[in-house]
Write a structure and sequence with these properties.
The chain is α/β, with parallel strands linked by helices and 256 residues long. Helices cover 34% and strands 15% of the residues. The longest helix has 16 residues.
């Protein structure tokens, strides 16, 4: 799959923030950008501002581009501007998934992420690594996909793509020979001495039981109804999570 990642200067802000940058080329034509994203890529990501979202949506409508979702990057730590009584503390992100995102357990899959802004990254608007990793997940990316950073700027997106792929390669690979194209967890979360291969993709032809199937079976054995799993759309939490929470409770109760 080919994924386009667009973090352009927001409408009306190009000259103010990037006028002295070597790559400065004036205001970005978001209508033309919308067409390029739709024509050249299987999936894509576009950052913009809450104050320019209406204009960007109009540009996408004029370009005839739809089928995307609007995600929210929420900033618990954000810059406060002079004479602005209500801080701008979130940014919309338009996402068109290249494939259905997988509930892999790497992070909780929500249409928002809470993460503070970057500090001293060398270029205004550089995105935090965790924001990029979240967007790689919700766009349905896999490490073997091609990511095209349309507005490289500080290079933060390309670096985040490299670290995200490296993290996945360190903890996941398909145990089959030849391997299937999807990542597969080699160990369960509780016992790294007892490998239990599970494929991350339900219905994959790699021959391994899927994580979804395994979690469903475990939930049924523990008395949880299948309907409950379907309602939540997420796997049953691992037992190790309950153990960890119980330990915290004991520490608090004991005053330690």
């Amino acid at each position: 799959m080919r994924i386009g990642y667009a973090d352009p200067p927001y409408p009306g802000q190009a000259k103010h923030h990037y006028g002295d940058h070597p790559d400065y080329a004036g205001e970005v034509d978001h209508e033309a950008l919308a067409r390029r994203l739709a024509d050249e890529f299987d999936g894509w990501v576009l950052h913009t501002a809450s104050t320019t979202l209406e204009r960007v949506l109009d540009d996408f409508a004029n370009a005839g581009v739809d089928g995307f979702r609007i995600m929210a990057w929420v900033k618990p730590f954000a810059a406060f501007k002079r004479n602005v009584s209500v801080a701008y503390a979130w940014e919309p992100v338009l996402v068109k998934a290249c494939r259905k995102p997988v509930v892999s357990g790497r992070m909780v899959m929500r249409d928002f992420l809470s993460e503070g802004i970057t500090m001293q990254r060398g270029l205004a608007g550089a995105k935090p690594e965790r924001v990029c990793h979240w967007l790689f997940e919700v766009v349905g990316a896999e490490p073997t996909d091609e990511l095209v950073d349309l507005f490289p700027g500080s290079g933060a997106v390309s670096r985040a793509w490299s670290t995200w792929g490296q993290q996945l390669r360190e903890v996941s690979m398909c145990p089959n020979d030849p391997p299937c194209p999807h990542a597969a967890l080699l160990h369960d979360i509780e016992d790294y001495d007892d490998p239990s291969p599970m494929c991350c993709v339900e219905g994959c032809d790699c021959g391994q039981p899927s994580m979804v199937q395994q979690d469903t079976l475990g939930a049924v054995e523990s008395g949880v109804k299948n309907d409950d799993i379907a309602d939540f759309g997420v796997p049953e939490p691992p037992e190790s999570l309950f153990k960890m929470c119980g330990s915290f409770y004991e520490i608090i109760r004991g005053g330690r």
